Amino acid sequence: MSPTAETRLGARAGDSAVSVVNVSKAFKLPHQQYHTLKERVLHPFRTSTYDLLQAVDHISVDIAPGEFFGIVGRNGSGKSTLLKCLAGIYAIDSGEMHVEGRLSPFIELGVGFNPELTARDNVIINAIMLGLTRKQARERFARIVEFAELEDFLDLRLKNYSSGMTVRLAFSVAIQVDADVLLIDEVLAVGDASFQQKCFDEFTRLKAEGRTIMFVTHDMASVQRFCDRVMLIEKGHVVEIGDPEAIARRYNELNFGRTVHELQADGSVHEERPLPREAEIVDGWFEDLEGQRIAAVAHGDPCAACLEVRFEQDIDDPIFGVTIRNDVGHTVFATSTDLEHGPTGHFRAGETAVVRMRFENWLTPTRYSLTPSIARNGPGEDAIDVRTDVADLLVHGGHFTGGVVNMPHGFELEHR
């Protein structure tokens, strides 16, 4: 670490729980890599040349105590490297970092586990490594095992655990550490849906307790659900720091090919230019049964959510999606053609298509927004384009019950 690079745990940085000041981190990538000892002996000077990968480039940010702060960016943008610098896994090349209080990294869960030992032994050892005393580790053992739901596998060696079981155990240990600042890096990528929900509930509890949390993720729904502010990183630079909804929109534009950020000579990232793509959503709107565009509709009147797509290249069976959110940003309904329609057919370059999703309007009175999307047919979310909140619809009339929908229903009473 250079003399200008400094990391302080527990050092005060004004009113910030975490302060990152002009931090940079680069990696040397040698042009020649040795695979055997013989190669190293015969060619000792081949590693004299290398490429420099600037993973983090002069990033500065202050995070307030109790803030749930998100960090997003495409693969290779530098977000995980930044967290590893804060955790002390990597030494920074320049800049300063200050963390107020005890730090707990949820970065590589299970690091320090011994596969030859049982889960019972690993829990105690890992808890002590994360900062608990031996007494605290034993006192919290039952809670750790209960959260992980692995009571029947405690005496099984860890090498016989599945990857999901290992992550569950590691996460359960990590949340028992009394940390003031938590670094969370995509720890929910493994695990079943029910365990992921338990982790989300745990995040809610930690946030309510006033813990400071830095959360790296690709999941924009989680960003908007948990985060107070979000930082978007591209090529090691900060693109923008701001409101979760606005940053989610910028991330989608960047990730789905609408814009690319160019590095300028002064190191800034502000110029944008359009990227070629297979298709583009050119419009989105709501309409009534007569095909007229509407901005308001009475509760109970059927309507349709529509999107217009222009194709720049030939494509087979694209998937069209529709998401409807209410006035507080909660997803009320989401669907796509692969769920309800099936194959959509072949579309030629230069062709335009209009897609209508008709629905019975059971929505309760408030304002709703439309987010249309288009994706390639295949596994995963291989999105081509998305337009966040492209159109609004005000639903009026009906009875406001406090729910998000007023479904047709009836009651039956029986005396016994």
3D structure, described in words:
It is a single chain. This protein has 416 residues and is of the alpha/beta class. Among the domains are: 105-272, 3-Layer(aba) Sandwich (Rossmann fold), CATH 3.40.50; 279-396, Distorted Sandwich (Coagulation Factor XIII, Chain A, domain 1). It is 22% helix and 35% strand. The chain has ten helices and 24 strands. It has helices spanning 37-42, 79-87, 119-129, 134-139, 141-148, 163-174, 193-208, 220-226, 244-255, 337-340; strands at residues 6-9, 18-30, 50-63, 68-72, 94-99, 103-106, 181-185, 212-216, 229-234, 237-242, 259-263, 269-274, 279-287, 293-294, 296-298, 303-311, 315-316, 319-325, 331-336, 346-347, 352-359, 366-375, 383-386, 391-396. The strands form six sheets. It has a six-stranded mixed sheet, with helices on both faces. Helix 5 (141-148) runs antiparallel to helix 6 (163-174). It is globular and about 75 Å long. It starts with 5 loop residues before the first strand and ends in a 20-residue tail after the last strand. Mean pLDDT is 81; it is low at 7-13 and 259-271.
Strand content: 35-45%
Contiguous runs where pLDDT drops below 50 for at least 5 residues: 7-13, 259-271
**Assigned CATH architecture of the domain at 105-272:** 3-Layer(aba) Sandwich
Q: What's the helix count?
A: 10
Cα(first) to Cα(last) distance is: 79 Å
* Helix content percent band: 10-25%
Strands, total number: 24
Strand order of the largest sheet: 6-7-8-4-9-10
CATH superfamily name of the domain at 105-272?
Answer: P-loop containing nucleotide triphosphate hydrolases
**CATH class descriptor name of the domain at 105-272:** Alpha Beta
Principal-axes shape call: globular
CATH-defined topology of the domain at 105-272: Rossmann fold
Residue-averaged pLDDT: 81
Decide which structural class fits the backbone: alpha/beta
